[in-house]
Amino acid sequence: MLYHLLPVRIWLPLIYHFYHYPSVFTGIIETLGSISAIRREGSNIHFTVASGFASELKIDQSVAHDGVCLTVVAVDAAAGTHVVTAIDETLQKTNLSTWAPGRRVNLERCLAANGRFDGHIVQGHVDLTATCESVADQNGSWLYRFRHEAGPGRVTVEKGSICINGTSLTCFESTDDGFSVAIIPYTYEHTTFQDLRPGDRVNLEFDIVGKYVAKLLGK
Fold first, then answer.
1. Is 136 a domain residue?
2. Taking the model in full, what pTM does it have?
3. Which of 122, 140, 177, 199 is deepest in the core (most CB within 10 A)?
């Protein structure tokens, strides 16, 4: 990010934020996981997730599941699974309450200090869910249209970044309550976009830089 090109009142809060909240993602999906078990406990839900990197995980590690930052609370390296817990606040703001065994999810571990920043700044803090309105096969790529509730800080711009189910993507046809994205074959094959159908709910995280700018400008 070229913070020196932004006014101090914009980049200073960003520096403060990432100093105090160091877990950050980039929206580049590492692997697909699969929900193997679900257990409810009070208002919480415990998800057991099978993945190719489960044996590398440690308890208390942060992993983005479809864009939701969740803490690993148990690991079974032999079974290739880990467990995360979603509280009621998370369930209310995301699509996790709709998950069922067998569902595939996008997984990304938080960025290492020496890692490459190939996507954009993603916190793993979902703002709200959106609805997939349409999917169009473009003979080699796919166009998806999403609709969401308009509101303060829910800003997209042409050629700007958006995080959908944990995937860093570029917006076009941006409006106050919707936008479109184009998916290339590699992304389609290596994320849950191949499973997405019209009417499905997805997790949205708007660009943190845009949210700070919108707040400072009173929008």
1. yes
2. 0.88
3. 122
